[in-house]
Amino acid sequence: MVTFSDIADYRDFLKEFYDRRKVEMPFYSYRMMGDKLGLDSSYLYRVLQKKQHLPAHALPAAKEILALTGREAEYFDLLYSAAVSKDKTKREELMAKALSLRDVERHSLQAAELKLLENWWIPAVRAYLELNGGVVNVKRIAKDICPPITEEQALEAIETLKEVGLVKKLASGKLALTEAHLTVGGPEKAKAVRSFQRQVLKLASDALENVPVNERNISTLTLSVDQSCFEDLGDMLREFRRLVQKRVDGAKNPDRVMQLSMAFYPVARKGGAAENTIIVGEGAGDKK
């Protein structure tokens, strides 16, 4: 869940709320949220897509369902006023006030949190600790991570996880996973996330040569879409991630740590579209 220190557009509060509720309650809809705000579902959808603004009469209800009070509610109001203002100078003044409130609550930037995002093996070590019941055997951890890492990297990963609060030491000497959340936000986090994603995608590429076919599942699609289809596929990918997380939560005897990478990006734009969808992957036909 994002905090108000991470948001620069008031509509992101609403979008984050809707997405979270949708994960918790798959049947949650724009209509249900719109009823709380006094809006019809189509208008609410345009608000969440940042194509419309909330009407002023919906602001109290919005802050109520978002549970915003005090400084956060004031921050929301300032962002709203800045967004709807047509006067550039006034808009800049309102945003400056909003940012001053945000800085009061912003957590101190922790180098350990950025390190966690910049190195692919640190989240892998955390998952491995869950896999082996929290037993700390640096030599074994370094060897079992795929591809293997050094013992120094394994030890650094454990120390980073402890510093960030994502694991805690038990009286038995084992480590237990916690539900702590990262506080880093802004451009520093975005840069670290991009670095992490580059590393993960390289691992996927390397797996084509280094991991046996029966231990991986890699396939690609090249397809032609219009804007509506593009948006629908984005929704489908988000729903797929939710279903994956739900299924993983139900795994009773995990025996491996897997990395799932999904990438959906343009390789050609208007000027000519392919007639077919090309499917490439193990067990897939050449064409659909």
Give the uncertain stretches in residue-range form: 103-109, 272-280, 283-288
Helix count, DSSP H or I runs of 4 or more residues? 12
The helix/strand series, from N terminus to C terminus, equals: HHHHHHHHHHEEHEHE
Approximately how much beta-strand content do the residues carry? Answer: under 5%
Q: Based on the structure given, which CATH architecture of the largest domain is correct?
A: Orthogonal Bundle
The largest β sheet comes out as:
2 strands, antiparallel
Strands in their spatial order, largest beta sheet: 1-2
Number of strands: 4
Mean pLDDT: 83
CATH topology of the largest domain: the name is Arc Repressor Mutant, subunit A
Please report the first level of CATH classification, the CATH class of the largest domain: Mainly Alpha
Number of domains: 3
Query: How does the helix and strand content classify structurally?
Result: mainly alpha
Helix percentage: 55-70%
| Gyration radius, rounded | 23 Å
Shape: globular
Oligomerization state:
single chain
Could you characterize what this model shows?
The protein is built from 12 helices and 4 strands; from the N terminus they run ααααααααααββαβαβ. The chain is globular. The strands form 2 sheets. The protein has a two-stranded antiparallel ribbon. A two-stranded antiparallel ribbon has the order 3-4. α7 runs parallel beside α11. It is mainly alpha-helical and 288 residues long. The longest helix has 25 residues, at 186-210.
